[in-house]
User: Which sequence fits this backbone?
């Protein structure tokens, strides 16, 4: 229960911070992170835990530090994750240890994650 309340409060603070910006500041921030202002507002409204994406990367045995060398890919993963409608299914798969086998069934980033995994396997050889 505390974690739900904590998440809700953080979301409210994030939304209030976003609403305190003037249009120019919002546009500049959105531009800096490669999003349209409307996409940034959507991400805040539909915010999901960034830890979930990190946990998925770990479940797929991918190195987040290695991915950080490709900021556009990371931004795209984060953007899509933020618009995901399967957060409960994702969380359940992560919590039960079935994410590696099941992510293609529900993950909006499945195509990119699979391509990255395949590429990672090729470079590991």
Assistant:
């Amino acid at each position: 229960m505390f974690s739900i309340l904590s998440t809700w409060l953080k979301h409210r603070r994030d939304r209030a911070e976003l609403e305190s910006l003037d249009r120019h500041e919002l546009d500049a921030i959105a531009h800096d992170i490669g999003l349209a202002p409307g996409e940034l507002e959507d991400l805040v409204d539909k915010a999901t835990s960034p830890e979930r994406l990190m946990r998925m990367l770990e479940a797929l045995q991918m190195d987040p530090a290695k991915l950080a060398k490709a900021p556009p890919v990371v931004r795209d993963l984060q953007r899509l994750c933020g618009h995901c409608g399967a957060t409960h299914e994702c969380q359940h798969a992560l919590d039960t240890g079935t994410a590696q086998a099941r992510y293609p069934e529900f993950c909006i980033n499945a195509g990119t994650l699979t391509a990255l995994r395949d590429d990672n396997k090729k470079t590991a050889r």
In short: The chain has nine helices and no strands. Residues 1-47 form one domain. The mean pLDDT is 82.
